[in-house]
Amino acid sequence: MKDTVADLINQAVQSLRSRADWPEDLPINIQIERTRDKTHGDLACNIAMTLAKPLRSNPRVIAQQIIDALPASDAVVKVEIAGPGFINFFLNEASAYQVIHDIFAKGDDFGRLPANGQKVQVEFVSANPTGPLHVGHGRGAAYGACVADMLEATGYEVCREYYVNDAGRQMDILGTSVWLRYLQACGEELSFPSNAYQGDYIEDYGRELLAAEGEKLRHSAAEVFSGICADAPEGDKETHIDELINKAKNLLGDDYQIVFDKGLNAILSGIRVDLAEFGVNYQEWFSERSLTENPNQVEAAISKLQENGFIEERDGALWFLSTQFGDDKDRVVKRENGQTTYFASDIAYHKNKFERGFDKVINIWGADHHGYIARVKAALQALKIDQNKLVVRLVQFVSLFRGDQQVQMSTRSGSFVTLRELRDDVGNDAARFFYIMRKADQATDFDLELAKSESKDNPVYYIQYAHARVASILRKLAESGQAWSQEAGLAQLPLLTEDTEKALLVKLSRYPEVLSGAAEQFEPHTLAHYLRELAGDFHTYYNAHKMLGEDKQLRDARLALSVAVQQVLRNGLHLLGVTAPEEM
């Protein structure tokens, strides 16, 4: 009904533009809200107050002009002016049932909006391919997927993107770690570096590399560690691993790429599988290495910053003058040795994003990247790109508990719980829902026992059970040899007069606005909370009333309401990446 009332107001405004000499370029922003107090009607609009300044008139006078110009509508019983200029609409009782008609007519598309012509990129997870995805990555995956799906449902053309960090020091540490495990698999005895990747998966890759390449990559441990500085605690662990990386590159030459690609491809393949099995799919896997290939986009970005006057040379290095845009300090983009920095690649990557024609770019980062936002936005301004087109949402950390014990996670040490292990433990549905049921920027404790429980305290079980409950009612009806149809149910809707029924009708009518708000604010937790409330209202209704009573007409009406609830639950769960089972 919000759309109906908005359309009535829009028609009134268009009429007043011609009859009351309202200017054609008058800014029109029609916002319809539900009233909190039913004595003030069902819906309210504040358009008269927003037009008071441009029309230089009293908002109550404007409100009366709009009311007088409103076209007739069977849905509206009365219209009043309230307070400083609110226009309150009182709807007839039959309008409350319109939502059931809309749900049945649109089905899976109920709540969705038509295409708006806007292209949006959502980049999320983008974890370094240095190890399997852990439970922390899972939250970013669930959140990003929900944001993308909700935006798509509300009319945006969405590109889901994973930025593959397949270059740089961390990847060299991974490649060298794989090679050292390969040497051990060959029979070489060596002390594995403390700053290398320690997980069992690295040993697996080393053995696989031996099986694939034989001993062509083998060098003696004595040769490998000759001239290498001591590891911690006697020496410096950072220098130790860096010197081993250089030694690997020198000894292996072109074959270094074999060990590098072994680690990268094995881990990236696992990441792709894990995300796909988690219901998370991408249109684009963007390689960081591609930014330095022909043409070199990193150098092009630095040149553009130089051209715009925001690069300064200091002691042989190139610095981006990000402080001119509010950053706390300037940033190096090219070191004295000519190597470009991670930040330089990020500048080039964001330049590339906007060159691809996205109207809005949404980055979903871990909370530890908070300080990175200012410098990236500074770079956009220096490149003369509208920084407001970049939206950054931070995802806080997840604390996983097994009983009273919190599990510590570290990719480098290999002590972590993988996303796959979590999914195997609690299932995809619980994992997806528990990850997004709180605001993304709030830290969350993941309660494994609650996620697996079959009780009303488990929100995802509670919602799914409401969906399955409706399916059970329909099965019982069929088993008794009786039939029900949407047409029969729609014809009897006026029989829904109980307070619980009216509450459900109102709750159902709110779904489109909840979805739209959740998408625009990038907050899937609001949709999750709505579904839980809807499920709760339905369980209350089911427990208070007989669904398959002797009164066939009342039964048909109640089944229509129940099936409408089921449809909305299914639509919402789908957007959250959760299944809607027919049986529990």
Secondary structure: elements and pairs:
Layout: H1 2-19, E1 32-34, E2 43-45, H2 47-55, H3 59-69, E3 76-82, E4 86-91, H4 98-106, E5 119-123, H5 135-153, E6 157-164, H6 169-185, H7 200-213, H8 221-225, H9 237-252, H10 256-277, E7 284-287, H11 297-307, E8 311-314, E9 317-320, E10 331-334, H12 342-355, E11 360-366, H13 372-382, E12 390-395, E13 398-402, E14 405-406, H14 419-426, H15 428-436, E15 444-447, H16 448-452, H17 459-479, H18 486-491, H19 499-509, H20 511-520, H21 524-544, H22 552-575
Parallel strand pairs: 5-6, 5-11, 6-7, 11-12, 13-15
Antiparallel strand pairs: 1-2, 2-4, 3-4, 8-9, 9-10, 13-14
Distance between the termini: 35 Å
Q: Which bin fits the share of residues in helices?
A: 40-55%
CATH architecture of the domain at 459-575: Orthogonal Bundle
The description of the largest β-sheet is: 5 strands, parallel
Continuous helix count? 22
Radius of gyration: 30 Å
> Judging from the principal axes of the Cα atoms, what is the shape?
flat
How many E strands? Answer: 15
Strand content: 5-15%
SS class: alpha/beta
Mean pLDDT: 93
With strands numbered from the N-terminus, the spatial order across the biggest sheet is 7-6-5-11-12
CATH superfamily of the domain at 459-575: Isoleucyl-tRNA Synthetase, Domain 1
In the CATH hierarchy, the third-tier topology of the domain at 459-575 is known as: Isoleucyl-tRNA Synthetase, Domain 1
